[in-house]
Give the backbone structure.
Amino acid sequence: MAVLLYDPIFSAHDVDPKHPECPARLGAILAALAPRHLEKHSREATRAEIERVHTPTYLDHLLAQRGRWGEAGPEAELCPASVDAALLAAGAAIELVDRLLLGERGMVLSRPPGHHARPHEGMGFCVLNNIAVAAAHAKTKGVERILIVDWDVHHGNGTQEVFYRDPSVFFCSIHQSPLYPDSGFADERGAGAGLGFTLNLPMPAGSDDQEWLSALEKNLVPALQSFQPQLILVSAGFDAHQLDPLAGSWLTAEGFRAMTRLLRGLAHTYAFGRIGLFLEGGYRLDTLGGCVLACVEELERV
């Protein structure tokens, strides 16, 4: 069975009843995953763990707003429970890495999401960059080559920024373009020692399951023959679904299943089967649960 990490406080992050990134997202996911066992996560990420990714000034800014209404950055609002939820989400990301290194597979079902969060500010519904915190933690555990794949419909600009000069993390984002946050172009390939370790696959609006899968097969798979990751982490957003209100891509639940199957195969080839998913976007409540279920079913396959 896949490890499914969750905490009720993730549903307490609620900045506006009309906000698309709402607690009902998790309700829809949990209903679809029933009767699977959810493991309650209760450890916050420490300051040292977070500062591997985020600046001390930004963390101070967040902690000063704990228990209050505020903001983490552009389009990243906070309610009184948000900072607690974000600290626990980052802690759950770290716990999942520890479990992956023990030979398990799984997913973190957390809010707020993370992949837009930059080192010095939150952004685009995101407060702490959970997957970046997870990858940085994996490096302290001796993992030398980490693959991060981001299939949220929006470019994972924050994660890219964190690892843009780092050759130990291969970052691949497939996303609709043009679209928020107006980054993730094909010529963004990394810098310094990290040149060549960033791969952006911008897809036009209307692209479907087969086109996204083909782009990964033709571009990411060959690149991994030399990189050979020891751990695969996935920013799993589901807003590329054809009915999602915030974008114009044309994926279905079966497309997300197929991408999970591809990456699970790559994990078996290179990374001792170690693959973990981290919830990002996805705002159509009547389709979100089915998309997550399809991915979890793939993780559960022997």
Remarks:
- Residues 3-300 form a domain with the Arginase; Chain A fold (CATH 3.40.800.20).
